[in-house]
Amino acid sequence: MPVTLMTGYFSIQFAGVEFSVASYWWAFAVILGVSLVLIFLFSVFSGTFDGKIISRPWSRMMYDISKRILLHRRKKAQ
Fold first, then answer.
1. In the structure, what pLDDT confidence band is assigned to residue 22 with cuts at 50, 70 and 90?
2. Which residues neighbour 9 within 8 Å (Cβ) at sequence distance 6 or greater?
3. How far is CA 77 from CA 22, 67, 73, in A?
4. CA atoms of 51 and 78, how far apart (whole Å)
5. What distance in Å separates the CA atoms of residue 9 and residue 14, rounded to the nearest whole number?
């Protein structure tokens, strides 16, 4: 985890709100879990999963896919 995220989480202070130790660590577990899932999804969708180098930007891949779909539909209509 990035150091800034960890220090930010541990320095949170809410005025007038008391947390129990258990609820604090449950909240931390949820935040950690969501962060790990989002990091995993980003790595899969950006093409960097397993250390692969990004060959093309995500927007360019989507453009190429949509272009292929449209050309396929035009050929099918003719």
1. confident
2. 28, 31
3. 62, 15, 6
4. 43
5. 12
Please, are residues 68 and 62 in contact by the beta-carbon 8 Å criterion?
Answer: no
Q: pTM value?
A: 0.47
Query: Which helix (H) or strand (E) element contains residue 19?
Result: none
3-state secondary structure of 33: helix
Distance CA 49, CA 42 (A): 9
Tokens of 16: 């007038």
Written as one string, the DSSP assignment of 46-74 is HT-GGGPPP-S-HHHHHHHHHHHHHHHHH
Amino acid at 33: G
